[in-house]
Amino acid sequence: MTALNFCQDCGAALQPHMVGGEQRNHAYCRRCRLPRYDHPLVVVTCFVACGQRLLWVRRALPPQRGLWAIPGG
């Protein structure tokens, strides 16, 4: 797979940038202020409700290990 060099939306040159708590650089567009991934993945999340309560899960893996999240995968 080829590394991204330019933003798909605005055409600006991409720069390496740390995103969130991840320990690796991602291609980042300074003009759009967004990370650009060259390997996007499809994921599904869901809200599980019981009356007035919602189910949350605590993340077991990096990035953001230990933080609360919506169930998904």
Provide a descriptive summary of the structure in words.
This protein has 73 residues and is mainly beta. Helix content is 0%, strand content 27%. It has no helices and seven strands. It has strands spanning 15-18, 25-29, 34-36, 49-50, 53-54, 57-58, 68-69. A three-stranded antiparallel beta sheet has the order 1-2-3, with no helix packed on it.
Rg: 16 Å
Sheet-strand content, in percent, reads 25-35%
Shape: elongated
Level-1 CATH class name of the largest domain = Mainly Beta
In the sheet with the most strands, the strands line up as 1-2-3
Give descriptors for this structure:
single chain; 73 residues; mainly beta; Ubiquitin Ligase Nedd4, Chain: W; 2 domains; 3-stranded antiparallel β-sheet; two-stranded antiparallel ribbon; 0% helix; 27% strand
Question: What secondary-structure arrangement, pairings included, does this model have?
Answer:
Elements: E1 15-18, E2 25-29, E3 34-36, E4 49-50, E5 53-54, E6 57-58, E7 68-69
Antiparallel strand pairs: 1-2, 2-3, 4-5, 6-7
Structure in a nutshell:
The protein is mostly beta strands and 73 residues long. It has strands at 15-18, 25-29, 34-36, 49-50, 53-54, 57-58, 68-69.
